[in-house]
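so my prof wants the structure for this chain in the tokens format not the other one, which i didnt know existed until like an hour ago. anyway here's the sequence
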Amino acid sequence: MKQVPQLPPWLFMVGFIIFQVCGSLLLRVASQRTGFAFAKFFIFGNIVGLCGVTCLTLALRTQHPNLTFALCQGGAFCVLQLACYLAFRIPLRPAQWIGVAFIAAGVVCVQWTGGAAARLHPQVIAENR
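here's what i got, hopefully its the right format
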């Protein structure tokens, strides 16, 4: 059986963040519309979000789940807050900006310690035998 070359996991993680943020923004636009325009943005937002979930599933194939979930979900949350601020002019209070910064710092901390956790992933252990 011919082996298909795999894309790097970070590419799927970035894809998840981009698709999730775009899908969420489309759902926000849908909430401001009525009739056919609502349905169009709602359906498109869900399709884009499904692409994000697919990217997450592909990233989970080779990476430690704790690391992958932290980077993907935390990264998507931080980017979504910035995108909402820029796209819809939804202001954040200083305490909310601090919260976003703490989440971003948490994602960085998980990444620093993620190397040891990634070595414990069952697939990595099986490949090293």
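also thought this was worth mentioning. The first helix runs from residue 9 to 31.
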